[in-house]
Design brief:
This protein is of the alpha/beta class and 313 residues long. Helices cover 26% and strands 12% of the residues. A hairpin with a 6-residue loop joins strand 1 and strand 2 (33-39). It is globular, with a radius of gyration of 20 Å.
């Protein structure tokens, strides 16, 4: 079960200013063509999180001026609708996110929208620290709430579990309470028979459900892990060393998320943690240099976001 925010959950105490990935010109992290920044570090530790690697506040590489310049140049493309902030947890990395969003507003004004995925609820952020409220005020659409594995629903748009909401932030702040964004109220044909956020039934029982991009990626990773385990078991049966082809010749090793050790749930990062699970000194892990998998989301973000991928163009 996900944690609830504690008094030590302060961005300037836990964040190291790292990013797990940057993906330009994607179409799964919100409406339209988007540029998506995945920040590193999250303390919620939601069970079933698609992006456990980014729980570490030192995963990936430091955010720097060169990356910021690249993001702004990509956002200036006329086909781009906006910026998406994912993670990790954007509201525990407010220095990075505010720096980028404020520059976006200064250079492009309101011509680009900002979406953010968070484990916090709107109400928690509205009553949160000054930096969290400042970032909230710059966001147009907020996908809020912990990812709840028991409420996972693959038919939902932009969110991963039924407790999460897609909120119009400006309308919510003006009304003094959470107000749904139209993007969160749309129901795909495969969701017939489910309920809308207000509890109203949608229709007949659903047909085959279409999985989101991040769910497909997550399932693919599980399948690769299972295939690798079966492969190793077959070698064990024949008395051969896993990872070696018949006859003792070294076979190819698989790099990527499937080959990384998973952090046990009882060893999730704590406020003030300084350990480094990901690449060190701003260098990318070898797996991140591989060809990026298909786009995919708590939210992953929880939604249709992707796992950390290459920061290369």
């Amino acid at each position: 079960m996900a944690r609830d925010p504690g008094p030590g959950w302060v961005s300037d105490k836990v964040s190291h200013g790292y990013v797990a990935d940057y993906k330009p010109f994607v179409m799964v992290d919100g409406e339209g063509v988007r540029c998506s920044l995945y920040v590193s570090g999250c303390l919620f530790a939601c069970e079933g999180c698609f992006n456990e690697a980014a729980w570490s506040f030192r995963y990936g590489r430091p955010y720097d001026a060169a990356l910021e310049d690249r993001v702004l140049a990509d956002l200036a493309h006329p086909a781009v609708q906006g910026l998406s902030l994912l993670g990790g947890e954007p509201f525990l990395n407010t220095e990075v996110c505010l720096r980028l969003v404020r520059r976006l507003r200064a250079e492009l004004g309101a011509t680009r929208d900002v979406w953010a995925w968070t484990g916090y609820t709107f109400e928690e952020l509205a009553a949160g620290h000054d930096d969290q409220r400042a970032l909230l005020a710059e966001v147009d659409v907020l996908v809020d709430g912990r990812f709840e594995l028991a409420q996972r629903d693959l038919t939902l748009a932009f969110r991963g579990s039924r407790n999460q909401r897609v909120l119009d932030v400006r309308a919510s702040l003006a009304a003094g309470g959470a107000t749904w964004h139209a993007a969160g109220l749309r129901v795909p044909p495969s969701a017939a028979g489910l309920t809308q956020p207000d509890g109203a039934a949608v229709g007949a029982p659903p047909g085959p459900q279409r999985r989101s991009a991040h769910e497909r990626e997550h399932a693919g990773r599980r399948d690769r892990e299972a295939q690798r385990e079966r492969h190793d078991d077959e070698h064990d049966v024949h008395g051969e060393e896993p990872g070696r082809a018949p006859g003792g010749v070294a076979g190819p090793r698989v790099l990527g998320h499937a080959a990384q050790e998973r952090r046990p749930h009882d060893e999730v990062p704590q406020p003030g943690d300084d350990e480094q699970d990901g690449p060190g000194d701003g260098e990318l892990h070898a797996s991140m240099l591989a060809h990026p998998p298909a786009p995919g989301r708590c939210r992953p973000s929880s939604t249709d976001a992707g796992s950390p991928r290459s920061l290369t163009a």
